[in-house]
From TrEMBL:
Biased composition (Low complexity): 9-28
Keyword annotations of the record: Kelch repeat, Repeat
Name of this protein: Putative leucine-zipper-like transcriptional regulator 1
Record Pfam families: BTB (PF00651), Kelch_KLHDC2_KLHL20_DRC7 (PF24681)
Disordered: region residues: 1-42
Domain of life of the source: Eukaryota
Length: 764
């Protein structure tokens, strides 16, 4: 970065890679752009800066609420929780001695508990029932009833009760025709004005049938659903959540088939889909461990899983599944959070942008009466990987061409992305550029050749497999591998080729992704092919894993007795036999070390600082760089570049003020930056930075922020006045501060003395 000679006082030349800028924006001069690139005008109503300076909750923070007093309702487990308007309603469960059928209410605004008013005959005491809300009613279905203390009259139910919130009236529905078998520990959801019941336990076996009934109209008749697709195993004690026209089921008790898979049921097609657990290819954490008695809720584009019993432990991590990217993550709570202890058979619901968790069984089989609140965040998702991936797939603005394999397949890419992520390929590109410059010097007598005369850089990779190289490119741009056909039999062999390139290009994190994926994919049916090819390609790590897999007690007999083993090379047969006789310790640890290698974000962050030799564009601030009608400060524009290059949203509040309009003006693919700017301004203006906010708001003519800053300056004047920045304010802003003080002081009422009667001799 260097000052421009045109205006040494305020103009800056900033050299950058146009590749990164083009991949993240569709700049159209004065308007925004749709994700497809067409320009659209920015509506003032959508992008004007409207801030809320009311009290707020810190995101990702757990907070313990008022515990339910035993006088109001017992501590309990196996109950249900629903949300209606500004209240949480808890029904049923057991307190460790008896089943319950009381209905208690927690007001989230008043933060207090009470017994809910009701008339009519409520459902019999029960637990492991289901509860949903439709319209202004709560519906209770099924569950387990009887006397658990004397172990008598215990039975599952298939009755349906409606509780009308407006009148507090309980009514039992009566049906015609077939009904679901009585059950407990099932799942229930509402979609398309219908109640949907799935799976559960009938007293003898776990189920996986599905039934639905309309909650509107006069016809009260159940319909059994003919399910299609990859159905979950029979299960009970699992949660369900509805999002985007689908019902999601995660884990649960399934006997020997218990799994940590996430299943999706499409209400319109009546088809199930098992969501792939191939998180390895996306560089994402694994799904939560298998469990039962947990909760799952939907908010924004996420599913949140908490608690349950996971292989005899009670974890209290909060897992989050992104429905868009299909990636799991673990949310790290704020440092001052009051995190609930692990528990099972609790219940949860969402009101506004917060999740409430109540009750459950904690350590030593103790019932809980605790209520906890977790504050969600609702930022638009980061599209960094998608944006770079789209840039690769559309092959726009490519400036390097790789000649790959013996057939010399031509594959184009972008110098900046490649150089940022692979030192090996970076060296190859620099060598190709030097060779081209020498050619220009020889032909034209100079390296400064017009763009139209420049040929694209060419880098030869004769030993690479084109399909594998395409996959490596995809990883370089997106940090993940997306196979066109993930179920192909050739995937294992292709992954070996990718691993070989990862080693050659020195991309350690991709090496580990390949090893982990091969561990995930190698099976009895393909391990011999994997062994043969790893030996041929001299991939010692993979070969050693294959040998270890073959000689395992559960695998050895089936593999050795197969026809494929009979056709195996003699030398490899000998190695298998020797490995069986002397297994020894495995020479490879297949566990991913997150500290090995670098991510897309970290590589682009380094490249932004150190990739000067690959820059191909000069950006002149206060010359041709504007956001709307203003030129951003140098610091604000650097914050914008960090966001474009690697999705960074950390910036001072004054930068947020400059950049609030940037997503619209430059045509970003979403308004994520705008959302962070708004949050930053609402929550992070303090006396330490209020003077910078005052200057920026005055420069940008944002009166509501300026007035707020002036009020804060007056309120904290003794602290603000001592800041060095105070001496640097312009004369006009100092006058604004004085006038603000005069306005506020003028509102002060003197209780004991009339100011008009004060004389020079008055004792003030």
């Amino acid at each position: 970065m260097k000052k421009s000679g045109a205006d040494m006082s305020s103009s800056w030349n900033i050299s950058h890679s146009s590749t990164s800028l083009k991949s993240r924006t569709t700049y159209s001069g004065s308007g925004g752009a749709t994700p497809g690139g067409s320009s659209v005008p920015c509506e003032r109503t959508e992008n004007s800066l409207n801030l809320d300076f009311t009290p707020f909750e810190t995101i990702h923070k757990w907070k313990r609420m008022l515990e339910c007093d035993e006088f109001v309702g017992a501590r309990r487990s196996k109950h249900t929780v629903v949300a209606y308007k500004e209240a949480i309603y808890v029904f049923g469960g057991d307190n460790g001695k008896i089943m319950l059928n009381d209905l208690i209410r927690f007001d989230v605004k008043e933060k207090c508990w009470s017994r809910a008013f009701y008339t009519g005959i409520p459902p019999a005491p029960r637990y492991h029932h289901s509860a949903v809300v439709h319209g202004s009613s709560m519906f209770i279905f099924g569950g387990y009833t009887g006397d658990i203390h004397s172990n008598s009259n215990l039975t599952n139910k298939n009755d349906l009760f409606e509780y009308k919130f407006s009148s507090g009236y309980w009514v039992e529905w009566k049906f015609v025709g077939r009904t679901p078998v009585p059950r407990s520990a099932h799942g229930a959801a509402v979609y398309d004005n219908k109640l949907w019941i799935y799976a559960g336990y009938d007293g003898n076996a776990r189920l996986n049938d599905m039934w639905t009934i309309s909650l509107t109209g006069d016809t009260k008749q159940w319909e059994e659903i003919e399910q299609k697709g990859d159905r979950p195993p029979t299960c009970c004690n699992f949660p369900v959540a509805v999002a985007r026209g689908c019902m999601y089921v995660f884990s649960g008790q399934s006997g020997l088939q218990i799994t940590n898979a996430l299943f999706e049921f499409n209400f319109k097609t009546k088809a199930w889909r098992r969501i792939s657990n191939e998180h390895i290819l996306r560089g994402a954490p694994p799904p939560p461990a298998r469990r039962y008695g947990h909760t799952m809720v939907h908010h924004d584009r996420f599913l949140y899983v908490f608690g349950g019993s996971a292989d005899s432990t009670l974890p209290n991590d909060l897992h989050c599944y992104d429905v868009d990217s299909q990636v799991w993550s673990i949310l790290i709570p704020e440092a001052d959070s009051q995190v609930p202890t692990g528990r099972v058979f609790h219940a949860s619901a969402v009101i506004g942008d917060a999740m409430y968790i109540f009750g459950g069984t904690v350590d030593n089989n103790v019932r809980s009466g605790d209520m906890y609140r977790f504050q969600f965040s609702s930022y638009p998702r980061c599209t960094l990987q998608d944006d770079f991936g789209k840039f690769l797939s559309e092959r726009q603005f490519c400036d390097v061409q790789f000649i790959v394999g013996t057939d010399e397949v031509k594959i184009t890419a972008h110098v900046a992305m490649i150089a940022a992520r692979s030192q090996f390929l970076r060296t190859k590109i620099l060598a190709a550029r030097d060779a081209r410059n020498q050619h220009f010097e020889k032909i034209f007598g100079t390296t400064e050749v017009p763009f139209a005369e420049r040929q694209m850089l060419e880098v030869k990779l004769p030993g690479a497999v084109p399909e594998a190289f395409e996959m490596v490119l995809n990883y370089i741009y997106t940090d993940r591998i997306d196979f066109r056909d993930p179920f192909s039999n050739k995937i294992v062999l292709l992954m070996m080729d990718i691993y070989q390139l990862a080693v050659q290009f020195f991309i350690p994190r991709l090496e580990q992704v390949c090893i982990q994926y091969l561990e995930f994919k190698i099976s009895k049916s393909n391990v011999l092919d994997a062994l043969f090819n790893s030996d041929k390609m001299k991939l010692t790590v993979i070969k050693d894993y294959c040998l270890g897999f073959i000689v395992k007690e559960d695998n050895f007999y089936d593999i050795v007795m197969s026809q494929d083993f009979a056709a195996l090379e003699k030398a490899l047969m000998v190695e298998v036999i020797r490995k069986r006789l002397n297994p020894g310790k495995p020479t490879v640890d297949m566990k991913i070390d997150k500290n090995v290698g670098t991510t897309l974000e970290s590589d682009m962050a380094v490249f932004l600082k150190t990739g000067g030799e690959f820059c191909d564009i000069n950006l002149v601030l206060e010359g041709n760089i504007q956001i709307g009608d203003i030129s951003p400060s140098r610091e604000a524009f650097n914050s914008l570049l960090r966001y474009i290059y690697y999705g960074d949203t950390k910036m001072p509040p004054e930068d947020s003020l400059y950049l609030f309009q940037a997503p619209c003006f430059y045509g970003f693919t979403n308004n994520r930056l705008q959302a962070f700017c708004k949050h930053n301004l609402e929550h992070n203006i303090t006396f330490d930075n209020v003077l910078q906010i005052l200057e920026a708001s005055d420069r940008m003519n944002v009166p509501d922020i300026k007035n707020y800053a002036l009020r804060m300056i007056v309120h904290d004047f003794t602290q603000v006045a001592r800041l060095p920045k105070m001496r640097m304010l312009s004369r006009d802003l100092l006058l604004d501060v004085i006038m603000a003080m005069a306005d506020i002081l003028g509102d002060i009422r003197v209780n004991h003395q009339d100011l008009t009667s004060i004389s020079i001799h008055s004792d003030i």
